[in-house]
Structures are given as C-alpha cells and as structure tokens.
Amino acid sequence: MGGAPASGRSAWERDAAADTLPRMPRRPPLPDVPDRSVGLCSACFHAAVQRSAKGGAFWRCRAADTGRTQLRYPPLPVVHCKAFEEGTPEA
Ligand code: SF4
C-alpha cells in the first residue's frame, strides 16, 4: 500500500529533514565604526573618500592598489576585511 506513515511524513521527507545543509555561521556584529552604512571602511587607514561633482561619496579601498584586497570599490557596508587597519580614511 505504501503512502505516508501514521506520523504524516514520508521516509523521503524525514531523510530530507535530517539531511539539512550546514548552517552558515552567524555574522559577527559590526564593531563600533563611525558610519554603520559604510562599515569597516569608515574606520580604516586604507579607505579614501572620493566625491563626485554631484556630491556623491565613493569609498575607495587603497589596499586594492597593492593587491591586499580584491575590490577597489567594495560593496558597502564592509563587515569583514582581512586588510582592515584602524585609522582615519583619506578625505
Ligand atoms: S582594507 Fe578593507 S576595510 Fe580597509 S578600506 Fe579596504 S575594504 Fe575597507
């Protein structure tokens, strides 16, 4: 006859529930930074703020110039960065 057992879940559903993907580690909280919308770059020695003619601000990573990071303009907010060095961003 087959069908779902009395518990309401089929063997396949039980296996699928038991075989869940490992959970991603929780993201650590962002440390105290001057601008949470920017993240670590707002407190990093390697950051440089570039202003556009229209008044926009672009956060450039100067560590990318020497290959210490991959992205010259990292997506913000930056919450993890191996090249982070506490300091004042270049204005
Ligand atoms: S080294 Fe990391 S934290 Fe510093 S400016 Fe570059 S991306 Fe931002």
Helix share bin: under 10%
* Number of separate strands: 2
Average pLDDT rating = 85
Distance between the termini: 74 Å
Bound molecules: iron/sulfur cluster
N-to-C series of helices and strands: HEE
Strand order of the largest sheet: 1-2
Parts with pLDDT < 50 across at least 5 consecutive residues: none
Strand content: 5-15%
Broad shape: elongated
Count every helix, treating DSSP H or I runs of 4 or more residues as helices.
Answer: 1
Output the radius of gyration.
23 Å
Count of separate structural domains: 1
What class, by secondary structure content?
Answer: little secondary structure
- Main beta sheet: 2 strands, antiparallel
What labels describe this entry?
91 residues; little secondary structure; two-stranded antiparallel ribbon; 2 strands; elongated; binds iron/sulfur cluster
Outline the structure in words:
This protein is largely without helices or strands and 91 residues long. The chain has one domain (24-91). It is built from 1 helix and 2 strands; from the N terminus they run H-E-E. Strands 1-2 form a two-stranded antiparallel ribbon. Strand 1 and strand 2 (57-61) form a beta hairpin. It is elongated. The model has no long low-confidence stretch (mean pLDDT 85). Iron/sulfur cluster (SF4) binds at residues 40-41, 44, 46-47, 61, 63, 69, 74, 78, 81, 83-84.
